[in-house]
Amino acid sequence: MRPSNTEERRRDIAQALLRVMAKDGYERATIVRIAGKAGLAPGLVHYHFGSKAEILGALVAELVQRSEARIGRRTDKRPNALAKLDGALEALLARGEDDDLEAVRCWTLIGAEAVKDPEVRVLYDAHLTRLTDRLAAWIVEACHDEGRSGEGARSVACTLIALAEGFFALAAATPGLVASGTASPMAKRALRGLLAAQPPKEVP
User: What is the pLDDT of residue 100?
Assistant: First the structure.
């Protein structure tokens, strides 16, 4: 089913916020600048959104949807839990045709905004909690495949997410610091070390 003109216009406005925000930050992303980037009059932006905060909420939802779709494309057909975890890390960190450096920079800024804004925090937290749950389930399965306990799965999942979010921040703030193409392989190595550190599964 094709999106309505209103849905398309709202997406255009959210994408305009992404481009302005990625370049100059959230505070400088005024309605006038967002409207200009979207090729619209400011009044039309106000027609579709009650405030800049509402546009940010739509943008967060859009970025979450993109991230989850990217993870799905890289995990759905993987044969086992460890391969799915590798696919998830590739989706988060590897470069490819569907990567978006503007979105990475914007997501880092959204994380900072979540510290200050309770409404943004709810959206940010919900996405990362879902991702943590997903990774933890695969980690339990991968541990069991190796004869290990899965009791530390959630801590391992949180560590992987912290690693990814740290790489995002570095990519946004100091893009030359992390050598291109190294984030995903290093995260996979970290994953294997964390799995190997889990205790053996108790035999009943």
Answer: 78
The low-confidence residues of the chain, meaning pLDDT below 50, are none
pTM of the model: 0.88
Amino acid code (one letter) for 131: L
Eight-state DSSP code of residue 181: T
Spell out the CATH class of 56-196: mainly alpha
Q: What's the sign of the alpha-carbon dihedral 101, 104, 108, 110? A: positive
| Token pair for 91 | 């989706």
The first and second tokens of residue 68, run together, are 């989850």
Residue 191: which of 94, 82, 78 has the closest Cα? 82
Break the chain into its structural domains and give their ranges.
1-50, 56-196
Query: Residue 141 CB: number of other CB atoms within 10 A?
Result: 17
Q: Which CATH number fits domain 1-50: 1.10.3720.10, 1.10.150.120, 1.10.10.60, 3.40.50.2000?
A: 1.10.10.60
pLDDT in tens, 121-131: 998 999 999 99
C-alpha distances (whole Å) from 9 to each of 6, 20, 134, 168 are: 5, 17, 32, 28
